[in-house]
Queue: 2 jobs
Job 1
Amino acid sequence: MKYCMLIMDGAAGLPLPEHDGKTSLELAHTTNLDRMAESGAVGLARTVPAGFEPDSAVACMSLFGYDPKVYYSGRAPIEAVSLGIPIDPGESLFRCNLVTVRDGAMVSHSAGYITTDEAHQLVDALNQALGNDSIRIFPGVSYRNILKLKGAEDTALAICTPPHDIPGKPVADYLPRGKGSKALLDLMSRSEAVLKNHPVNKKRIARGELPATTIWLFWGSGNIRQMPSFLKTYGKKAAVTSAVNLLQGLGKMADMALLQIPGVTDGLDNDYEAQAAGALEALKRYDIVIIHIEAPDEAGHTGSVDEKVKALERIDSSVVKRLLERRGESLRILVSADHPTPITIRTHTSDPVPFLLWGDSIGHNGAARLTEHEAKKSGLVVDPGYLIMGKLLGV
């Protein structure tokens, strides 16, 4: 038996009043997912335990089959693992976004989706100006970077807000606060002068693009909990394909193989066909392959119904269609959102997410589509959500 998990990041959402109360999943034309639903089982999974931030780190850890209550200690360390950043006792790690703040408001949590090359140039400048033996920024993908602080353990106690939670809002109300926040506020303030006249930003402004005006620090943590390998936990050899550091970090922590597939990105320009083909090729070598696609989440953060629907339709026509072609083989598939990213609020919620189980020995439970409404109507609920991996593997 072979297995495949398809994670459509942020695919779930809330009813859209301007679209007759339909969600993005309901608006999208998903012929292939519909075919799967008509012979599979649709339900809801609570991937974010009560009291946890509705973040992809928590939600995807659940989908990977690991209990966040046991293994989650913060997102920044997970991303640090993916980047090969060593984590020593007494160090604190933070996600360090390049953002755009204008007239005191958060205009863009991603500095207009700055390119990775541009971001690396800005990070180099920031390290030259702000870095020392105790402070270093590690470049990641696009706007996503990691800050490591030595000898400042209390900074991990600061109360911080993700920038994608405050689109268009005054940043003064959401700056780091509480114990340990002084050092973070100082770095954020000092970064503004470094970025203001940097050639990268000047060129972006000349092209009509948003500049990176400051760094934004959040998701701080001072430790990481070790996870047992997926092979030891579930008895299966696993691989994962994703364009984002978080999923790669989770994969490394679970000792999964990381698939390097050219063309896989975190946006609408993702090469969906190549990612599907690479994942199916990897199934020849591994028992289970996890396909993670970021585009629906990014569209949700920007508040674009059209882009979110387009991302879902591309997933359906280019990825799900390829999976359906394996009908008749000994294969089980799980398709799921990790968390909702509703267009109406442009950030994550902790609501249960719709999922679809399809394939060998999976019976139909009456659902017609993979949508929030159909999932709720089915009555099938997986809570806690980390048990969903057992449902897929039949263990």
Note: The chain has a mean pLDDT of 96.
Job 2
Amino acid sequence: MYTKDKLMNKVLIAPLIMAVFLFSGLAKATDIAALNPIESLKVKSKHFKEPVEYNITLPTSYSQEKHKDKKYFIIFALHPRSQPYLSGIHEWLSHNGDWPWLETIVVTPAKYNPEFAQLFESLVKDPSNQTMLDYFEDDLLVAIDKKYRTNGFRIYSGFMSNGAIGLYTLLNRPQLFNAYMITSPTLANNFANISSDAEEKLTNLAKVDDQLRFLYLSTGKHQYEQGSLPAFNSLEQSLTEFAPKTLDWQAHINTKNNYMSQPIMTVINGIEALFDDIHTDLKADSAISTQGPEAIISHYQKLSDKKYGFDISAEGSLKALAKSYMESEPKKALAIYKKTAKRYPDSAYALSSLAEIYATLGDIKLAVSYQKKAVEKSKTMIEWHQNNHLSKLKKLQEQLK
């Protein structure tokens, strides 16, 4: 389960670790080459005479014993040269404990493949020819899942014509990927029938299944992008009118960055937007939270079941709602803190919050009891959090005396 406490556990201590790394004479240089090992995966298919080779860039934790049961996202891109920047951005954005990018396996072609290029051209010439999508679904993705510990959540990243192929996939085989990061898609001249099919196929997305999907769509106004701008604007209008509620999408015109910087900015901004519902708690006055704790729990259950496929914690949002009632309606706050602690019995901070509200209500003895439990649960956390809970316990014990 991905919980706010687990993320906070690692994120809060990162500045201290960095300070030690920079200033301690004992600090050893990081072995950068070992952080993200690259493996080769050759995928056989009836569509090609020879196997297609891919570079599989693994996260730092993949081979660590303590993470031997952990499963990972994948991000897939069609351009071989996307491997260095995808793996580099991912390493930087995930090394603070899956924040803001949860650890992911990067999948890219090892080199240009003429047979695959022919398949690409066949799709462009005849958009009804979905052999490429068949290959993705029946061969490539199956081979990746068979060899690596994947969690079923897949991200597609593409630039220019590869970005357009991502949109084609979303419209024609949406179940292949859960999220799409599309940069400067080549949409002019009704590329792959994307423009002409958008209305109908966006409308049909909801009929495929009830899974939640994500699309981050971006372009600029460089001379290489201008020819596709009318179609880009038309697609944005189609998304506005016909995209189902199950598709969470954003469209941006980015004129601040260079044309070649666009895919990098799309990945950074898209990843932060994609995982924002994991890393950012709902505000107490949000539309969901104002409906009460059950609405919050239902929201995170939907994210767990329909978007990610694993449990997403509602703890932080429940506590934010409870905190908003601390002064005005402390008994209401207590009820929510109790519900949170019951739902997350292994969370040191859920127990500590319960101790805090009991102390506020004047029941120091009960507060001490819950804080002792918080201290016990914190023993699996880093030292900073252990000391934090011990400090809270000592203060409560002083009050009890």
Note: Confidence is low (pLDDT under 50) at residues 6-29.
